[in-house]
Amino acid sequence: MSPPRLTHTKNGIHLLINDKPFLMLPGELHNSSLSSARYMSEVWEEMKSNNINTLLGAVTWEMIEPVEGEFDFQELDKVILDARKYGIHLVLLWFGSYKNGISTYVPHWAKRDSGRFPRVHVWDVELGRKRTVEMISPFCEAGWRADSTAFRKLMEHVKEVDEEHSTVVMVQVENETGVLGDSRDRSVIAEDAYKEGVPGGLLKHVRGSEGLHVRFQERYLERLPREVVEKEVYSWDSIFGPGNSADEAFMAHYISKYVGKVAEAGKEAYDIPFYTNTWLNFDDPSALDLHGYPIVVGGGARPGIYPSGGPCPHVTDIWRFNAPALDFLAPDLYFHDYELVCQDYTTPSTNPLFIPEQRRDEHGARRVWLAYATYSALGTSPFGVDTGAEIIGREYKLLAQTSQFLLNSPPSQRMGFFFDELPESGSPKGKEKWTKTFGKIEVIIERAFVFGKPGPGGGMVIQLGDETSLRFLVVGRGFQIRFRGLEEGVTFTGILDAREKEVDSESGELRTLRILNGDETRSGEFLIMPNDEPDYGGFPIAVTIPARTCIAEVEAYTICEAYM
């Protein structure tokens, strides 16, 4: 069997495990969890019971190479064996040189040797001088060489112990890279590199490439020269704009080169999917609702508040140029506009969506439907899942039960959606109606009708059959679905048939649990997928009964009649 790999199909980019499409239902562990097999021994069963089939966990440079040139994989081997025993896959997070913009996970021997491993220097406005940051400079060749050696050894070992089993399915290379505290590294070696200007290869790439990211085009395209003149020096300011803008592009170039070298070394040892993750920027902090949390948790308004040079959308083209060994780039998504970020990190031909970190609360759990069904996500991964998996587990149960339909349908035949809690006063902030055209019919999703206060919800709709079909699989809770015929002459659109489905415990196939009609379809007007506890608002008749399985199949129909 082949090792885990990504493949392009008409249904999106899929992760193949043992040559079969696999839908990750992942969660990310706390940073230290995977360092201890004994700690994890009390985690596996809980993850399994909450339908989590993949765990993201850190493997740190200091853990595997405590003495330079001497590697220790004993604890990792125990973890891999236990994961295999429970049927849970792993995505290893390589905390090498960089984790959240600093170098806290490098071995002690590297930390102590600032001569061999020089650090980033930033300008401290309050001090009125430069200061040292605990971050190995991306201009340090000794740094990427030592990191590459360790990462190569790690991947060689993973291949040796796991290639026949595919317990480890992907690897994240470094974590949330970039410079914090300033827009760029201001050490002597960095200043010398800055004066050399934009490298010709990078300039030709962004000048001559088609399909540049829309965020890159918005910021930089008008500044790029129409023709690149050989031997002419183009300053970073002249190409990317003065100040922070040039500084961020400069750091993106050299950090991505550093990470690209590390990724390349690991890829040569064991060719499975690699990616790196992003601490996102936020251009307009005034639009960010953080409920009183500091702006830094949602990304900053300028480079240096968020890590300058990390793979934010507007510099992903620089990253793609320098780090081809990375199969894709991924956003850590907590407070941003969820759908906008999904769009920014989904390129059907080159960059599948994967969210390695997101919220594990109800707010985050509702949004996974959008990522999986609309944007063909490889997976969405709530952070800190080992101390709180119940909420995402409820959504993952439904995704697990219907994964065959999700994997076997093209993006044009599915959609995801969500509704947040309604505020006590004022207008709701998110969408109150989601629509999509499927062939000759429009699907309309709204909150589930109740006599009291409508609740939150989320789910997905998948068109069954070809693009002319009027049959749909409906999954989730807290919403209702209705239809509108789009063919000329249609005078009526309604529900022909609706059935609640359940999973057969032996075959795993869906079978009919009950026929839905009457109140559940409002006499054929729309199908209700209620919340677990609908609000009756004091109405004395229980007409909105909770769904038992939250899975249904519904068929629409239309009538065309001529009026005299």
UniProtKB/TrEMBL annotation:
The Glycoside hydrolase family 42 N-terminal domain, residue ranges: 40-185
Record-given protein name: Glycoside hydrolase superfamily
Organism name: Aspergillus cavernicola
Protein's UniProt keywords contain Hydrolase: yes
Family annotation (InterPro entries): DUF5597 (IPR040719), GH (IPR017853), Glyco_hydro_42_N (IPR013529)
Stretch forming the signal peptide: none
Keyword set, alphabetical order: Glycosidase, Hydrolase
Residues in DUF5597 domain copies: 393-527
SUPFAM superfamilies recorded: (Trans)glycosidases
Keyword Hydrolase: yes
GO molecular function term, any single one: hydrolase activity
